[in-house]
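**User:** Everyone, produce a chain:

**Assistant:**
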Amino acid sequence: MRIYAPWEKRFKKIATPFEHFLHAQTTTGIVLMFMTVLALLLANSPLAQTYVHIFHTKIDLTVGSWMLSHTVHHWINDGLMAIFFFIIGLEIKREILVGELSNIKVAILPILSALGGMLLPALIYLGLNHSTEGADGWGIPMATDIAFAISALVLLGKRVSPALVTFLVALAIVDDLGAVIVIAIFYTAKINFIALGLAGAMFVIMIVFNRVGIRMILPYFIVGLLMWFFMLESGVHATIAGVIAALSIPSKPKYAPKNFVKHTKSLLDRYDNYPARDDHRLHEEQKAILLNIQDSIDAVDSPAGRLEHDLHLPVALLVIPLFALANAGISIDFSSIGETIATPVSSGIIAGLIVGKVLGIFGVAWLAVKLGIAKLPLGSTMSQLFGVAFLGGIGFTMSIFVADLAFIGNESLIFQAKVGILAASLFAGLFGYLWLRFASKKA
């Protein structure tokens, strides 16, 4: 008699780590869209005051006379978002070591396109905001929201080549790295060098853990938490600790894949030697063998790989949705929305994310291909690359994050920035998707 038949398809289906990554990003995009709409509805409903009050409620951590006190909004942006940045750090490390960025011939096109897609939007924004109070927001239109952009592309299915999806992933990873550097260098007002030195010491300890072969996650978590606290006290944005911590996590497996295959085959042979029981239960020895196989699986995968896989969905379903709920809720007066969009800050962001991103990403890519420096992604066309450049103009998560840093304490400019981000991201996403679905042709 056959049992557990409904599960057979699940066991037979094999998804690569990259497919898991795309699934997580698509999930993030869908949930992010829902939470953004919810935040906007709450902020423009009779519950608006309650909505604002909840995220401005203070949460205190007290140990003796020591106290760490921040609002819920602050804990989300500086605390939970550190986990998001940790995932970004793991993704950057993976791409550089074994991904698209590990081969310079393949990586050159997304790297150059990402650089163009960061520099040109910043220059366009500065051109419209030079010598104004909003000049510090030049970093806002530099960012691309990887979750939204990839979600739009994945929804197109076979209309776009897998290589084009990979190109966008690599571009977004480079873009994220650029955003991290910009935040660390340019959006740090005052530095406490003692606290920064202690944060650096924690990073050195984590590197030592890596070098001596410590593969348990707990020691890295404890020291990483201390590094986050010292980074918070230093004045450098605390989320940068997430990226730095990710660089210290071991990315090599404990055992070589060849040894894993030999060891696992031996265990499976021993597993098969036990006769099947009438009640379909496992022998105690078989349970021990399965546990041994599980330990071997953990040993042949790297801690960095396991963490990236395990954290993607919690970040997608908890961290990013909470960030959107806390930050996307802006009260919109539709009678004056035109005036808001016409402000230098809002119009600079819209021009940067739409015009700047398209000219930066597509223009640089077109030039690199024409000069023979790089090649188009396999199975794609220039027309499709143009559509992808528009998807690069979806700046949502990182753009809002940078806006809060650039205009800290200035609610009027933050409001103008968020209106610009939402308007530009909506237009860029819709236009890019429709272009790729109806206007562009496959190679």
Q: What stands out?
A: The longest strand covers residues 58-63. Residues 13-187+237-252+302-439 form a domain with the Na+/H+ antiporter like fold fold (CATH 1.20.1530.10).
